[in-house]
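Progress note, sequence design subtask.
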């Protein structure tokens, strides 16, 4: 069953919302600006994506998410922006792997042939 949201009398599928958020995260990585602010925005966006996908987590993603939370807590105390970015990128990669395992990407960003 597909989750749907109604926006201005248009149906919007949950999958579309998630993929749009994925696109926005990729846009953040291309912006020029203060490095620390950009990293903070990126990490917040990646965490939001993970939060949206939480109901779809499999065992592999659960493990990655727990590892992320432990690592991010440790690094926030060290105040290492570069390390925080790396930890955030690791979570972003894991959410993309999850979407691949759950066929979120099939027939959307890529053609069906690219993923087979």
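Output:
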């Amino acid at each position: 069953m597909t989750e749907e949201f109604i926006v201005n009398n248009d149906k919007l599928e949950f999958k579309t919302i998630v993929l749009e958020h994925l696109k926005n995260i990729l846009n953040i990585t291309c912006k020029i600006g203060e490095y620390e602010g950009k990293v903070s925005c990126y990490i917040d966006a990646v965490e939001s994506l993970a939060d949206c996908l939480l109901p779809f987590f499999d065992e592999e993603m659960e493990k990655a998410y727990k590892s992320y939370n432990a690592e991010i807590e440790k690094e926030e105390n060290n105040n290492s922006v570069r390390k925080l970015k790396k930890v955030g990128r690791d979570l972003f990669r894991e959410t993309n792997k999850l979407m691949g395992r759950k066929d979120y990407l099939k027939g959307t960003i890529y053609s069906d042939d690219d993923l087979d």
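The longest strand covers residues 4-7. Work on this subtask will continue into the next period as scheduled.
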